[in-house]
Amino acid sequence: MLKTDEITGLFRRFEAITVDYNGIECWTARELQSLLGYSQWRNFFNAIEKAKETCTNAGVVCKRRERRGERCATLKIKNSDILKKIIIILTTFAAALLGQATANDKQMTMTTAKREVAFTLTGIGTALINWGDGTPSDTIILPNNYRWDFPHAHRRIYTGSRVRTIIITGDSITNLKCGYNELTVLDVSRNTALNFLDCYDNKLTVLDVSKNTELRKLHCDNNELIALDVSKNTKLWVLICGRNQLISLDVSKNTALEYLSCEDNQLTVLEIAKNTVLEELHCRDNQLTALDLSENTRLRNLHCGWNELTAAALNALFETLHGRTIDRRYSKWLVVGNNPGTDDCNPNIATIKGWAVDTTHR
Fold it and tell me: Less crowded by CB within 10 Å, the N or C end of the chain?
């Protein structure tokens, strides 16, 4: 429901931009377009045509004039009371538009210069896709089941290569998969309903997920991230952030985490004592010198090869491994190859606890 003071304020803004054209009270389309929140003329032109139809039905004669190279919407007033009512209607509509623009926290943007773009969406209801190329926006019905397959993706092939920003608006978009699009910017900060975000294999240097507190899965592998804050994503089950340029990673708040892949970064320390339900950890190709797994009693798969673990550090790691029997469908697997201490460590410390240890260099 619109507040009276909001409508009154917008009504005054309408009156403030009126002009006198040969004794006729009117508004220039240029100023109306800005006031009503339209960024493109063709969309506003359609709104003008609908407004003219409304005016005609109300007994007001409408004409469109051109003045000094400027588009000008002219209303010949036959009944000022009717006109004022129409202004109130338009003001109310403007308030709704502006309110939607300020209050709508369900819009996301993607920026890319790639000629062909494809992504998949899941959620409830509908979504609006503005492809950023001047064509009309697409309205789509969101499927409620998560689809991984790109044959069902929303796809656009552009003419020419230039930077474009795609705007996606939807009340309940829960899943977004937008990998392989060479994205340089991805803003999902207003999509608070997002559960799954797959934005791997892009060119992102920054990714803000601090507002996405409903995230269960984040897959941002193979980007150019130098930092990643997941402290607000306390519901995360899966975090895949490998092949970036991270020098630190704090997962102490992610106590629901079951799968963590942070391989091929520049991590020197990885604290996972708070991640007590963690089942798989892939941290190969970093610069780790120690790893304490004493609190990770559900762990069944660990890959920590290609780090800086000495023989003493590896033996200490083996000592912290749990000796629990896990689900018979799985075996406990540990890969430690290509560490400085791989050849001199004592894998028997782990094998007597039921772990299969791979020390091969590959």
Answer: N
Which two three-digit tokens encode residue 47? Answer: 């709104």
CA-CA-CA-CA torsion sign (353, 355, 356, 357): negative
Contact (CB, 8 A) for 351 and 357? yes
Confirm if 19 and 28 have CB atoms less than 8 A apart: yes
DSSP characters over 83-121: HHHHHHHHHHHHHHHHHHHHH---EEEEEE--SEEEEEE
Question: Is residue 77's pLDDT more than 90?
Answer: no
CA distances from 110 to 72, 131, 198 (A): 35, 10, 13
Q: What was the pLDDT predicted at 361?
A: 75
Q: pLDDT per residue over 256-297, tens digit each?
A: 999 999 999 999 999 999 999 999 999 999 999 999 999 999
Q: What stretch of H or E contains 316?
A: helix 311-320
Listed by start position, the domains of the chain span: 4-103
Q: Do the beta carbons of residue 198 and residue 222 sit within 8 Å?
A: no
Report the candidate in 201, 200, 220 with the shortest Cα–Cα distance to residue 209: 220
